[in-house]
Amino acid sequence: MLRIAVPNKGSLSEPATTMLKEAGYRTRRTGRELVLVDEANRVEFFFLRPRDIAVYVGQGTVHAGITGRDLLLDSGVSAVEHLPLGFARSTFRFAAPVGTMTSLEDITGRRVATSYDVLVRAFLAQRGVEAQTVHLDGAVESSVQLGVADLIADVVETGTTLRAAGLETFGEPLLSSEAVLITTERHRDEPGLSTLVRRLEGVLRARSYVLVDYDVPVDRLERATALTPGIESPTVSPLQNPDWVAVRAMVPRKDINRVMDELYEVGARAILVSSLLACRL
Ligand SMILES: Nc1ncnc2c1ncn2[C@@H]1O[C@H](COP(=O)(O)OP(=O)(O)OP(=O)(O)O)[C@@H](O)[C@H]1O
Ligand SMILES: O=P(O)(O)OC[C@H]1O[C@H](OP(=O)(O)OP(=O)(O)O)[C@H](O)[C@@H]1O
Ligand SMILES: [Mg+2]
């Protein structure tokens, strides 16, 4: 049976569970279940701390897992990214009290508070910057005010937490992170893993595309389908009125309003947009 590690807490937990549910897998009923066997899909899910997931995957005791790219890099484990999952997007940045630091050189000799020591030390070593790290479990933003560090290196999404602590980012981001499905080279071809990956890809596609249907006069068909080329090719069906045809195609969700405006300009009418529940392309 395929063994998959799923985050049990924190920012990754709920979206990971939602995604697996949309991919047709069983989900746990309470936050207390540690293991869930999905007999129908031949998968066993283990609910583990997000930070530990790379360790379990790296050791090979589970075949794959969902974690953050930043957590994977900080673990130092030789697991590999198999599929980016598009949620828990964040950047990892240095931040210091407003107006005090502008470049990496300013870090020299200072104390950097972080929960991601391995990642931060590797970054500083690579840039030849000598500094001390102070390990904290969380709420890292408070460390400067409380005097245990001079600056921090932490996850930034909206920047709200930083601002509340009187800090601002400086220098280039250490990395961009998001949730990722990880595995090891030796488990990459595990039976069932390719099915899980295909299902998750289906969910990602269904989230990023919509289905558009419209009617268009035959003499404008070419201009209209140039706007909606679809993935392979749009479906064109005859209508009772021989001067018109119906078209159906997938369109990136982010483009749909512009595409609808342009279709209307071209002469398309009855433009209908629907969400996709799932797909396999
Ligand atoms: N505010 C956020 N926005 C987006 N991603 C985030 C945010 N906070 C944490 N993450 C991401 O979630 C993962 C961190 O997992 P972690 O379990 O530490 O989440 P958490 O929300 O910080 O949980 P905890 O409540 O235990 O601190 C990392 O990949 C990190 O980049
Ligand atoms: O840029 P923002 O939108 O403010 O989000 C970033 C904050 O979110 C996370 O904190 P979390 O709530 O997980 O608390 P923690 O620091 O204790 O992990 C992260 O560690 C940052 O502190
Ligand atoms: Mg946190």
TrEMBL record:
Cytoplasm listed as a keyword: yes
Catalytic activity: 1-(5-phospho-beta-D-ribosyl)-ATP + diphosphate = 5-phospho-alpha-D-ribose 1-diphosphate + ATP
Cofactor(s) listed: Mg(2+)
CC annotations in GO: cytoplasm
A Pfam family reported for this protein in Swiss-Prot or TrEMBL: HisG
Gene Ontology molecular function: ATP binding; ATP phosphoribosyltransferase activity; magnesium ion binding
Compartments (UniProt record): Cytoplasm
Sequence ranges assigned to domain ATP phosphoribosyltransferase catalytic in this UniProt record: 49-201
Major localization listed first in the record, in broad terms: cytoplasm
EC number annotated for this UniProt entry: 2.4.2.17
EC class of the enzyme, as a word: transferase
Gene Ontology biological process terms, A to Z: L-histidine biosynthetic process
Pathway membership: Amino-acid biosynthesis; L-histidine biosynthesis; L-histidine from 5-phospho-alpha-D-ribose 1-diphosphate: step 1/9
Residue ranges constituting the Histidine biosynthesis HisG C-terminal domain according to the UniProt record: 206-276
Activity regulation annotation text: Feedback inhibited by histidine.
Record PANTHER family: ATP PHOSPHORIBOSYLTRANSFERASE, ATP PHOSPHORIBOSYLTRANSFERASE ATP-PRTASE
Task performed by this protein: Catalyzes the condensation of ATP and 5-phosphoribose 1-diphosphate to form N'-(5'-phosphoribosyl)-ATP (PR-ATP). Has a crucial role in the pathway because the rate of histidine biosynthesis seems to be controlled primarily by regulation of HisG enzymatic activity.
Protein name: ATP phosphoribosyltransferase
Protein source organism: Actinomyces howellii
